[in-house]
TrEMBL record:
<dbReference type="GO" id="GO:0005506">
    <property type="term" value="F:iron ion binding"/>
</dbReference>
<keyword id="KW-0560">Oxidoreductase</keyword>
<dbReference type="GO" id="GO:0016706">
    <property type="term" value="F:2-oxoglutarate-dependent dioxygenase activity"/>
</dbReference>
<keyword id="KW-0223">Dioxygenase</keyword>
<dbReference type="InterPro" id="IPR008775">
    <property type="entry name" value="Phytyl_CoA_dOase-like"/>
</dbReference>
<dbReference type="Pfam" id="PF05721">
    <property type="entry name" value="PhyH"/>
</dbReference>
<protein>
    <submittedName>
        <fullName>Ectoine hydroxylase-related dioxygenase (Phytanoyl-CoA dioxygenase family)</fullName>
    </submittedName>
</protein>
Amino acid sequence: MDSSYPKFTLGAVITAEQEDFFNQNGFIHFKRFIKPETVNDIIQASSLVQQKWIEKQQIKVNGIPIKYGKDLDGSTIVQRFAFINQHHPLFTELTLDPRFKTLLELIGPGARLGTSEKDGMVLNHYVNGPESKFTQMGWHTDGLRDIFQGTRLNPMLNVGIHLSHVKPENGGLRILPGTHNQSLYHMLFRKKYFLNTNADVNEVAIAPEAGDLTIHDGRLWHRVAQSTVTGEASRRRVIYLPIIAGKYEPKHEKSPTAFYQRFANLVK
């Protein structure tokens, strides 16, 4: 489980070195995308959204189920916020950062931020405590949903903005480099979707600091490992925002819950 891969700095363009690394491995890690004070502001803003949703007893956002759980003190928390960019101006502002236009180069013409598609901007809040219900996620690819919905497999990248310092023992993202170039058969059957949470001898541990940005290809096999520590040291927050191409398919408040969302109960 290696985490000693190269890290880069995001500039005005994607360099040839960065593009080559991403094309070969299916992921890339940029250091210090946002400042520590911005990280703190984002966490505070998510707490306000959480309070509003708990008070309203909101179940879904644009057809996507909200995942609730328990904090270390037993209080109710939101552990997976979908479309959070539509529920607080700070998250809306974050999506307007001009550096995202640079990231679109990794797909090319027709690429866009999925602020109103898929699950929008998602904020995941993991904590490993006695009553936790969201501590890990089994192996999967993000492209599976297109197949379930009967559409062609469109280009998709998942952009992660990390709000916590993460060491391998804290759990977090694990990826299998190069699997974005696999056949459709291996994309479907290489592992048991979500049920398989076991470590893979070839996996790479993504170990960001708060404020870092990562990108992984939607066809890449990845999982979220459970923290081996408990309590406050296990707390991790990360934002994900898709870069997509293909037909524009926005979600709205009357959007149905998709078939693949049935797998949500397999995420613990």
